[in-house]
Amino acid sequence: MKVAIASDHGGVNIREEMKHLMEEMGIEYEDFGCECGVSFDYPDYALPVAEKVASGEFDKGILICGTGIGMSISANKVKGIRCALVHDVFSAKATRQHNDSNILAMGERVIGPGLAREIAKTWLETEFEGGRHANRIGKIKTYEDL
């Protein structure tokens, strides 16, 4: 598995936690920034990660901003991306099982680093169930192709 990680200025601390988690789990990752303490625009980080995941260069992505909302909205503009904004472990598992999400978004101002690690670990370890859920994902793909 290869994971692309990025944040804007509002998610720098949790992005660092995600990098430590990837190392502990033995998952290859690339950090797409930001290296900042000043305000940056979240689309400048969300869109490149989403494009890398959509192209297949990376299997999954993790995006963090203050709330996770801006990152998730931006990433979901890229065809083929199913970015889920998650702030609890149950939703992290469900979005992988049922929605085959390929990008996880979280908000550093919403959750702390411990919960973020637990959410990401669950999300990374959970497989897509397929079955009736695959039909639903197929409908999304069909719409994207219109």
Automatic annotation (TrEMBL):
Pfam families, sorted: LacAB_rpiB
InterPro entries to which the protein is assigned, alphabetical: RpiB (IPR004785), RpiB_LacA_LacB (IPR003500), RpiB_LacA_LacB_sf (IPR036569), SPI_LacAB/RpiB (IPR051812)
Binding positions (D-ribulose 5-phosphate): 8-9, 66-70, 99, 109, 132, 136
This protein's record includes keyword Isomerase: yes
Catalytic machinery residues: 65, 98
A single GO BP: carbohydrate metabolic process
Assigned keywords, A-Z: Isomerase
GO MF annotation: an example: intramolecular oxidoreductase activity, interconverting aldoses and ketoses
Transmembrane regions listed in the UniProt entry: none
Similarity section: Belongs to the LacAB/RpiB family.
Protein name as catalogued: Ribose 5-phosphate isomerase
Organism, as annotated: Bacillus infantis NRRL B-14911
